[in-house]
Amino acid sequence: MAKLSFSFFSLSYNYLGGIMKKYYQIIGLLGIMFLSFYYTERIANIVLNKRPLMIKINEEKDNYKIESVSAVIEGDYIIPGLFGREVNVKDSYYKMQRIDAFNKYYLVYEDIKPEVSIEDNKDKIIRKGNPKLSQVALVFEGESNLTNYLKSENIKASLLVDLKTYQKNSYFEQINNDLNNFKALENNLNLNKENKHVCVLNSNIKEICIKYHNYLVEPLLVFNNNNLIDIKNKIDKGSIILVKDNVSLDSLKLIIREINFKDLKMVYLSDLIREDYLNN
What we know:
CATH class of the largest domain: Alpha Beta
Number of domains: 3
Oligomer: single chain
Largest sheet: 6 strands, parallel
Distance between the termini: 84 Å
Shape: globular
């Protein structure tokens, strides 16, 4: 019986030994393959970097680099940053390989996200766009003769809408301002691929905007029919101007004239606050 047990143990040991041997052989082969790929890639990169076109791209790449700009946080408020960009050397090389010559129009870029970004600080409130860009945004409480004028002049603006006033494929950018039907309107905007995930704050809507991870915007300039001169003097790069319903068309025209005089571009609110302006 002891002899039989010893034989069974010996067979089991040899069987397990054979499995372990094959296992180590496989591990060894995989290790050799990995090292082979690693060194092959390194050699290929060394050869690639010695080619005249690649040398030229490496010499020129810093001339086309744009540094990112971090968002500025002050208490509960934030001014959006700006994405930078840098040359993807290898992709640029393969794109230029067909002509075998350096051409800046064939450069391929990668975005550089700001170290501090509105994307990571959605609990902060945006009052204006980045002052490095010559842009402003007009926000209206709803459609009126004022927005009809803007449309006739091909001027971009954003509208605060609710479920009843929302219109699919509107000329204007539409921003969810419906406290009672916020989710339903969000669904409509998502379905029609029109949701820019922006909220213009009032005392009631902030909590639900935070819940849906929307950008929080509180316009620094609120334009009514009694403060034309004050608003006119304060318009600057990055200004967000909330236009109240009681503003007259003549007053609005004066503000638009001032914006044009200051060589500022009127854009949608979502474009004003976006940080990847290079892709705009």
